[in-house]
Amino acid sequence: MPLPSFDDLRRDADQIRPGVPVAVAGGADATVLEALRQACDGGWVVPHIFGRETDIRQTAEACGVGLHGFELVDADQPATAAVAQVRSGRARILMKGQIATPALMKAVLDPTDGLRTGRVICQVVLMELLPAGRRFLLGDTGISIQPTLEQKADILNQAVAVAHALGADEPNVAIMAATESVVDAMPETVDAAELVRRNRAGQLTGCQVHGPLSFDLAFDRGAADKKRLDAEGMGAADVMIFPNLVSANLTVKAIMYTAACRFGGVLCGASCPVVFMSRADTTETRLNSLALALAIAREL
Question: Is this structure's pTM higher than 0.85?
Fold first, then answer.
């Protein structure tokens, strides 16, 4: 089964009752409040917003967003307060609002009061390319700078779990590199071959792992045909696992800013889904990310 579109995810979210409580770290941002307003009106969520209440109210007034149905909590340290809301069980999803990523991650990773589970914290993005009708997951696009082989295996498992939550029973996973050949001078290709071996040996389950694969081979069957390559899984990636943060982040942002696409992202590996995108993102992207997080939260 292919991954769902964001239209599908939004229709699923429309069926949620009652709304899922969401703890928002930093609410003094127009796009954050607009997305929460739409999600709240649709019955998706019950927002608990942490930050300076006067700033949140001023921002809401400036952008014409009503705050009915929202709980505003005045907090000098919104990330810590929002994480505490999740730990207490009063929220099931954490959302990054107008707050710096290091501040949020410090609260999430706090060894005593954070949301650690022992898993690798990683960002998984669902990308929907509209003209091509293609949808795929990418990871890790925001946290792990240079993951080890074992960390890559954990990122792979978590991305596959997201694919399962979205209805893809046995997704095709592409381990990304600059070439389809295993080259000792390119350690990421050696890691890719090892991840494929573990999948074939039954150590990485619930998916079919292929690699190393360059982006064209993971994305486009025609590229494989032109190169006269007939390996299994080429051109059919449901999940792309990148060797490092630089390659993943550049790929995602290149697609975001140059292609007709929709996208949304979550952090995995914490004790709850974390809606986690850039402070520069639009209202629509924040709604997409909320819909994605809700689909994952249903499976927890």
Answer: yes
Looking at the structure, do residues 103 and 155 belong to the same domain, yes or no? no
- 279: amino acid identity, one letter: R
By residue range, what is the domain housing residue 257? 123-267
With tokens 């060894």, the residue in question is 111
CB burial readout 22-37, b (16+ within 10 A) else e: bbbbbbbbebbbbbbb
Per-residue burial over 90-123, b if 16 or more Cβ lie within 10 Å, else e, is ebbbbbbbbbeeebbbebbeeeeebbeeeebbbb
pLDDT digits (tens, 9 = 90+) for 126-148: 999 999 899 999 999 999 999 99
CATH of the domain at 11: 3.40.50.10950
Q: What angle do CA 18, 14, 41 make, to 5 degrees?
A: 70
Q: State residue 23 phi and psi, 5-degree precision.
A: -95, 120
The encoded tokens of residue 120 equal 């690798």
Q: Give 181: exposed, middle or buried? Use CB within 10 Å, 0-12, 13-18, 19+.
A: exposed
Give the tokens for residue 169.
Answer: 């029973």
171 and 239 inside one domain: yes
The 10s digit of each residue's pLDDT in 35-51 is: 999 999 999 999 999 99
d(Cα 297, Cα 85) in Å, to the nearest integer? Answer: 16
Taking residue 292's Cβ as centre, other Cβ atoms within 10 Å add up to 27
What's the domain count of the chain? 2
